[in-house]
Amino acid sequence: MSTGNLTINLKGIAANWAALNALSADTVQTGAVVKADGYGLDSGPIVRALYHAGARQFFVAAAEEASAIRRELGDSVSINIFSGHMRGDTEMIHDLHLTPMLNSFNQLTRHLEALPGHSFGIQLDTGMNRLGMEPSEWEAVRDTVVPLKPNLLMSHLACADDPAHPMNRQQLDLFKTMTDGLGLKRSLSATGGVFLGPDYHFDITRPGIGLYGGAPFSEANHVVHLSLPVIQIRDLTAGETVGYGNSWTAKVPSRIATVASGYADGLIRAMSNQGNLWADKTSCPIAGRVSMDMIGVDITLLDHDPESLDILSPYQTIDDLADMAGTIGYEILTSLGMRYARRYVSQ
Ligand SMILES: *Cc1c(COP(=O)(O)O)cnc(C)c1O
After folding, report:
1. pTM of the model as a whole
2. Of 8, 17, 229, 281, which alpha carbon lies 20 to 30 A from 201's?
3. Predicted pLDDT at 17
4. CATH number of the domain at 10-212, out of 1.10.443.10, 3.30.390.10, 3.20.20.10, 1.10.10.10?
5. Cα angle vertex 68, ends 191, 12, to 5°?
6. What residues contact residue 162 under an 8 Å CB cut-off, 6+ apart?
């Protein structure tokens, strides 16, 4: 086997969902965000595991992403689309029974004209300025829309990973002003918002990254393990260099392992001379630049020649690796390449 082995622990994902679910009241439904093919981990097996854990409300970014979920779970779950009702989506929204979260007056008109009577929700902008109707836009259509019974009103927090940020309260207050007393279901919180407490939970929560073991869910099960096979090991004398650009120089006689994975597999070039790989509990620094399909690793301190080295494991989580590369766990996950042999385990 010459490609990396990516193991995804479905039981851990289900347990993360259950733990996030337990943080809100029984009356609050916990949804699951599985956009970008389940944060790059393959939404098929993930939604099956989440369904068994009790999830019935799924969210994706684009209508196209819903077909894998319908294929797995049939019509037993709701699937909402963050990007709303885009031009060309009508047939999919109809045939796959999707609920678009309408973002603008334009989308509202398109939806009501194309699919009158079909379910929809409304996304409201409370300050992030990414998607959703502005307060003035909502005010203009609210009295027309509310009697049509949108099945969800939602907004998204910009700073929920920082509980002390004043933006959280500001968005909460505006969301309430825009939606109080309408008698409709509401949703404000992704993973970060779940930890801001019951004021932020409303009727449905929308955790994504926490399901997959990422911050800010600090107690999460770590659900991805990525092990990279060693192709070759060599000895260097002091002064020899490793990789493109000679960016790493042996200070002492060193032993270098070349592992099979690189930036084409999502291990970004910013990890050059930064991250570590692990031989079980022992860390071994990346030596030199990450290339397209290979990474050099300094294994001088190991007492054996490893057949493989881990880059994601219980000792180095997606957030540990992200910190070393100047990015976030979300980007590490969604970049994991298609060359890895993927294995889904349920224990
Ligand atoms: C991605 C996303 C989520 C999930 O966010 P996490 O931080 O991954 O929990 C929820 N709501 C919206 C609108 C999103 O775009």
Report:
1. 0.96
2. 8
3. 98
4. 3.20.20.10
5. 40
6. 168
